[in-house]
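User: Some background: our group keeps a shared notebook of sequences we're curious about, and every so often someone picks one and asks for a predicted structure to add to the entry. Today it's my turn. The entry only has the sequence so far, pasted here. Could you supply the structure so I can complete it?
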Amino acid sequence: MSDTGLHEGRMVVETAIRAAHEAGAIALDGFRGRDLGLDVKTDMHDVVTRYDRAAEAHIRGVILERFPDSAIVGEEEGETSGAGPLTWYLDPIDGTSNFARGIAMWAVSIGVAVDGEMVAGVIYDPVAGQLFWADDRGAFLAERPVDAADALARCRPLQSSGSTAPSRATVALNFPLARDLVHFPELALEQYAEVTRTFAQVRGLGSTCIALAWIAAGWLDATVSFETNPWDVAAGAFIIRRAGGVYRSYAHGEILPERGDHLGPHYYAAVAGGDFELLHEIMRTQSRRP
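Assistant: Of course. Here's the predicted structure to add to the notebook entry:
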């Protein structure tokens, strides 16, 4: 990479960290408050607050101030085109249902691609004060950073290592949700029961990006989910891979090519060496849904 390209790459991750940190502060200001402005989007399982919207608007402003020709794909404001090579995937509050109920399991997620290839990812959990980030240098965790410069300077490398035997592994199982029971419901419930019998611990977190970040850190061993969006997984998938873990996207029963698989609808993630056949079987069967 040229010096110019390296400098621009550093600017990208610095911008993403700044935007996530500041958006997290906006959301944290409303957390467990009474005036959330709660609305239902598609159904009762899919909600939004005024803090989701305010946080995304702030992130977009930070990005466009530094990279005005960017394309942006956000959960709340949708997709805006840009003439430049950068595409930013934004989830201002991943885990809004948790956020709205006062459950401290939500985070800001920002992933960045250059010409379709992921180059940076940032996940910020403002309640825990944990900022996960990755670029070409690797994957890192900054504890309670005061700003973007602090997150870059005062961080430690992440290594996605954990238990690879099901009898010792902890799974964050975002399945089956209501949307999953529309397809192969009896099979889904049988598969869930088998996971509880097979794995040491099964947890439901309610935040995709936190589950992915924790796999990158080695705090969880595996996770699966279906019918996700690029803003849910772009940052987390990249951070896991830079930490040495496994991320695979499925569609129609098959694993998708790695390049661009943050656009895929269903995913499996695990720590390094985590090749859990039961979870892969769930991915193969459940990803065949129409």
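Suggested note for the entry: The helical segments are 3-30, 50-66, 96-101, 148-153, 185-198, 208-217, 230-242, 277-286. The longest helix spans residues 3-30.
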